[in-house]
Specification:
Strand content: 5-15%
Structural class: alpha/beta
Strand order of the largest sheet: 2-1-3-4-7
Number of strands: 7
Distance between the termini: 106 Å
Shape: elongated
Length: about 475
Amino acid sequence: MEKLIDYFFKHWEKKSGLIILAIFIVILFSTFSEPLNIPLLLFTECLCSLIWAITTNRIVFPSRKHTVSIFIKIQESEKNVNIKNLIIKCITEVNRSPKIKKDVRILLRPLNKYSSVEEIKQAASRPFNISNLILFLELQSGNYNSDYVVKIDNHCIIAHTDIEKGYLKLKDTALKIKDELNLRTLGKNWTYVESNSFNDSKKITTNLKDFILYSIGLYLLFIGELDIAIKILRSLYDSNNIITIPKTNSKTVRLTSEQIANSRLANILMNALFVSAINKYYHNNKLKAYETIKECEDLFPRAIQELDRYVFLARIAYECNDIESSQKYTCLLSQLPKGLFFSYVNNGFYSILNNDLESFLFYYTKVFNYKNTEGLNATETIAFLEAEKEANKELDENLINIAEGILMKLFMDASDGNKLLDECITACANDTKYRTIIPLCEKVRNYQKSRSRRIYSKHRRKNKKRK
């Protein structure tokens, strides 16, 4: 009897476990039920079968926002029990992680249910499949040099969307999911040797956790769940394992596979944080947006040093009443190539805040010097000035209108800019307060862009004879 019970528990997850359970129930009813109650027997059999199917994860009910199923292909052997228990322990620890506990549930599905990726893809396309993401692990095992070895030989990710071929677009970066997973697992040792089980257990657990969490993180980014993805990916990022380029004359720098993988994670995480901040900003959650972009700056202080990021930081810092930080980012803008123009525009707005006409004249004279610069667009700046004019009635409306008129004339619709500047000149003509500003308005108003010089110079270069 003890052997039967032991066999039953060992084979509980297999179909043979269900058969043994059914036989046991029939024997139990035959022994204690006189006469045999067939309806009750059938009900008990069905109930126990349902319990068996649920406990072995053959039937899965969605209990969290995202469900991840892990399928394993492995040779049936008593020696593979350790690696199986190791995987179960790893999944349990990941499920308990506070990073995913509320949003993601990971399930180990029956072993060897599918033998190939193609079979899993077919199953994933069925209408009753509730797994948002499927991870497939193929294990090879056997004796090698008088030792028993298990190796995770293949691992892949499958989802409802064709994520393996899909590209993840973050800001200006397009990442191919399959390539990112291959890069993340590059150089990792997936071999478990029985005689070195203590060290290899730690190694396999670390590698498997990393693979599971990274796969989930990429998938969540792919479907637009940025906040959950960022929490997961940040837990994997190691700021101490960043790439440092030595100051040598050597043209080649040797990097470890871990450094390469961590660098790619840093790039993905940095862009994800920035995109998340922008999304929150445009959904009127400016405080959360500011917290997110500050988190990005704290994690990647050097990488944040880009024109669009400093422009965004300066604006959102002001809108969150952090004027000091806004001015700091504006100062940093001036140190970047092509950043001077935006620093002048920002400082011009600070002049409006402080009602400092002398400073306003200085900075918008500098803005006028960019009149022939191509590629500058003042649409968002004008929209920002309009919003501030409506929100803050204490600001000098004439100065805001002059700023809008100058920007509109030089970098947008010249005719609309002229009309606005004409209105400003008329409104301020009798006010001595604006006597130093009106000449700038007239100068911008009378300015006309001319391409004749550029066309002529190109023509001359084209026909110039070589000496």
